[in-house]
Design a protein that fits this description.
CATH topology of the largest domain in chain A: Rossmann fold
Protein name (chains A, B): DNA-binding LacI/PurR family transcriptional regulator
Number of strands of chain A: 12
InterPro entries (chains A, B): HTH_LacI, LacI/GalR-like_sensor, Lambda_DNA-bd_dom_sf, Peripla_BP_I
Strand order of the largest sheet of chain A: 2-1-3-4-5-11
CATH superfamily of the largest domain in chain A: Response regulator
Number of helices of chain A: 14
Helix content of chain A: 40-55%
Organism (chains A, B): Anoxybacteroides tepidamans
GO molecular function, one term (chains A, B): DNA-binding transcription factor activity
Number of domains of chain A: 3
Distance between the termini of chain A: 80 Å
Largest sheet of chain A: 6 strands, parallel
Keywords (chains A, B): DNA-binding, Transcription, Transcription regulation
Shape of chain A: elongated
Largest interface: A-B, 50 and 51 residues
Oligomer: homodimer
Radius of gyration of chain A: 25 Å
DNA sequence: AAGAAGGAAAGAATCGTTTAGGTTCTTTCC
DNA sequence: GGAAAGAACCTAAACGATTCTTTCCTTCTT
């Protein structure tokens, strides 16, 4: 079997409890003993058993990452690897390990996360999404498990620590930018309606139109389901309206690429015939042709802050709830131009 | 405190061991008792403690994912989320959880993984890379920890279970495709030289040239460091040779996008002035303009098979070593054309 | 020189399971 | 009718730490 704390204790002629204290570098142990014990550990090639430690100390030093329905699908979207990068960075700094949800359907994930937490596998979780009426979020709150959400919680946002962008402001600025270029017929291409990002950005979009005295037209709003390429109905209809839009606000880069492709097929040139601003500013925005004007939401930082705050919350469960807003920045590239009348 | 197996036992008027057996659905317990115990579990809202279970049973039902130096950097590359998707799928099917390395430097990762395994946090690991003379791989093998590598191990490949593509064949086919289009001056743009993928694909490239009776020129081979945009020296030099290549074999999509960008800056049109075939066929290949001809290596499946085989290996440590080759497929798009003389 | 004070380490309980090895009670069979 | 067999549970010892409590030495004080 493996080398345990007892073996080390025997070798160093001390009690197991002493070895444990040496590992924790307790001031109650003399330097001399510490040296002796450390030497024994080296000689035996001792490695602490995390599992046993977790059981005794009731903490696992692991944080859970919960992706929206289907880890499987989510990872196809560049947003997720990027948030995870941020989370990973913070976790690493604080010596926490990372565990990922693997569930595919919403209910599966719900069960999975509960097992993770109740089973003490993780000390807390980060939800990488925020959706209307989320069952899991309610459960976490009721059972007082440490968690933070990336995005704005649907209900009781003031009671839930979350890291978000000012999506309202983001939607507004992007739209204002297009208005500034003379566009008056601006459409909004959103993703899944039940996610709060979409809703907030739409709100900002509306506000920008209103302030500029432009009409808000329902037929200028469409929702394309995330990653479903077959679903181009809406876009085609939009572009063949009597008065088609001269500019598009597209809810994220990945979708913007889809849109770009479709426009190409329809022989519409960007930005000559139609302008396009998107969000997230992932690598895709830079790589696409033409490079996209996109609002950078600092995805990495979203993840970083989320993890940092979760870890703080785990350490001090009774600290006040926090709301962290990550700044954003419009990055101008080549997908927007002045309107051609 | 939480509901434990003892509480359930008391409630159901049985011994803790009986409850444990009910959880495991042991045939040694009568249906009647099982029903009684299950009811008690429901009533009390019992959830098993994984940590305690792991300690007692000496298995964690978790598999570790090890990314190459810097989880941080790796996740910027679309290959990784995609393998992880595959791993996640298989893990989910077998009820394994997933833990990720967060280390940044090679030594850190080395330590981290050892702690993971020795600390019994994971039952085995998947290495998402294969590099020349990898310290970690040696350690794993010597200590007989269950692991599988994605890619071809540098040494003793026949003793290590691994999942790979036929990178030699892939390099060869891609090159042959270009030769078939009449190209005679074909350059190879590789990534990090210490990764074995690069080496193998290069070998295939050479072989294809040779079979076609074309000369292999050293100045047609360059290595651009992964994700380092500043590093364009090599490419620029290559393109300003007396006899510049008419086609490029680029080692992956992400790099191909960089190359594409550079070509654009230099006013070279793809595929009119220069053809380009790349590898991996990630979303990027499809999304880029022009869409890239790329060899699909079925990344998802690489991950899926790796996880599946690791789990088998954990269950039966003495099964023979396996080598799994995932098939590939050249996907023709619009980045290649007949050579113009 | 006796007793107090305090530092260093040992002892032992605990965390929540699993599992080998008993024990008890019923059934079966000659 | 009594031994043997078998079903159905129970007891108790791990698993490898942490941590509260106790004990054992020193050293200092008066």
């Amino acid at each position: 079997m493996n080398v345990t704390i007892k073996d080390v204790a025997k070798r160093a002629n001390v009690a197991p409890s002493t070895v444990s204290r040496v590992i924790a570098d307790s001031p109650r142990i003399s330097e001399k003993t510490k040296r002796k014990v450390r030497e024994a550990m080296k000689e035996l090639g001792y490695h602490p058993n995390f599992i046993a430690r977790s059981l005794a100390s009731q903490t696992s030093q692991v944080i859970g990452i919960v992706m929206p329905s289907s880890a499987d699908q989510a990872l196809q979207h560049p947003f997720f690897p990027e948030v995870i990068r941020g989370i990973s960075k913070a976790a690493h700094e604080k010596k926490y390990a990372l565990q990922m949800s693997t569930g595919e359907k919403e209910d599966e994930i719900y069960e999975e996360v509960i097992e993770m937490l109740q089973g003490r596998r993780v000390d807390g979780v980060i939800l990488l999404y925020s959706r209307v009426n989320d069952k899991l979020m309610k459960y976490l709150q009721q059972n007082n498990f440490p968690f933070v959400v990336i995005g704005k919680p649907h209900q009781r946002a003031e009671q839930i620590t979350h890291v978000d962008n000012d999506n309202y402001g983001i939607g507004k600025e992007a739209t204002q930018y297009l208005i500034g270029l003379g566009h008056e017929r601006i459409a909004f291409v959103g993703g899944n309606e039940t996610y709060l990002v979409t809703a907030d950005r739409l709100l900002g979009y509306k506000e920008a139109l209103q302030e500029a005295g432009l009409v808000y037209r329902k037929d200028y709003i469409i929702y394309e389901e995330f990653l479903q390429k077959a679903n181009q109905e809406g876009m085609r209809k939009l572009l063949s309206l009597g008065e088609p839009p001269t500019a598009l606000v597209v809810v994220d880069d990945l979708m913007a690429l889809d849109v770009l492709k479709l426009l190409d097929e329809m022989n519409l040139r960007v930005p000559d015939d139609i302008s396009l601003v998107s969000f997230n500013n992932t690598l895709l925005a830079e790589m696409s042709r033409p490079p996209l004007t996109s609002v950078d939401i600092h995805i990495f930082q979203l993840g970083y802050e989320a993890a940092k705050n979760l870890i703080e919350k785990i350490a001090k469960p009774n600290e006040p709830v926090k709301r962290i807003i990550i700044p954003h920045k419009l990055v101008k590239r080549f997908s927007c131009d002045y309107v051609r009348k």
